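ok here's NAD(P)-dependent dehydrogenase (Short-subunit alcohol dehydrogenase family), seq below lol
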Amino acid sequence: MTDPSEKTFIVTGANTGVGLETARGLAAAGASVVMTARDRAKGDAALADVRASTGNGKVSLYLLDLASLDDIDRFAEEVLADIPRLDGLINNAGLGTTAKGKTKDDFELVVGTNYVGPFHLTERLLPRLLDTAERHGEARVVNVSSLAHAFARRFDPDDLFPSPRPRSRDAYAESKLANLLHARELARRYGAKGLRAHAVHPGFVASSFGRKEHFPGPWQLVFGLTKPLQIPPEKGAQPSLHAALSDEAGRLNGTYFVKSKPKQPHLPTDPDAVQTRLWNNTEGLIERSRQA
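and the structure came out like this:
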């Protein structure tokens, strides 16, 4: 790619874990970076950390709650007023949880936060991404998915919020498959206009992902036993950085990266049709929520 110092990226969930290290990696490359966080104090601490460790003063913080369509709209209006150029959006933030709950728009918490929120955010920022692609050659969207997408065996693009859902953990797998299909559909719809969209698996990262309030009871034993297999967040950020910055990711489109290498994902039958239905149904969900 051209000099990253000329580029601007947004990284959601950048106050901790993979998101923090992704923001640090982009800042270290010289890019302008917009970090997002839900909590002001945690976000400010992460912002100071990235600025100090990279010496890059072109790093800023905005508050964003992906479990609220209204807050996504507010954020989009604020950030678009401040940045005339957007070269990349890293949809990193999300929940890994077996707990049940609802977003502020009454969507199931996990699918609503991990998929519907990033989908709406991407829609709101898409005109700026496409304008940047037209003026500067390309722009990129990176969706952080997971190998867990392979376990979304009951995925139905016409019913993202089945009730009752047999197992709460299915929601996580389905949200990660939706992230992957969203990236593929973005690439299909807008690739000719210079948009590159990819999905990545960060790996089994040692982070706050497995904290007790998200994975209670026996899950803590699982995380304890597998701790030696976990990788540090800075390594988990590498697939996102590869998809955002590498020449290879600029040549490809709609790719799923594992360990920064293209990998064939586990896709439903007729994935192109499924991802198109998913896109259209998600737009419908958001529109109906707005009218409620």
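fwiw Residues 109-136 form the longest helix (28 residues). kinda neat tbh
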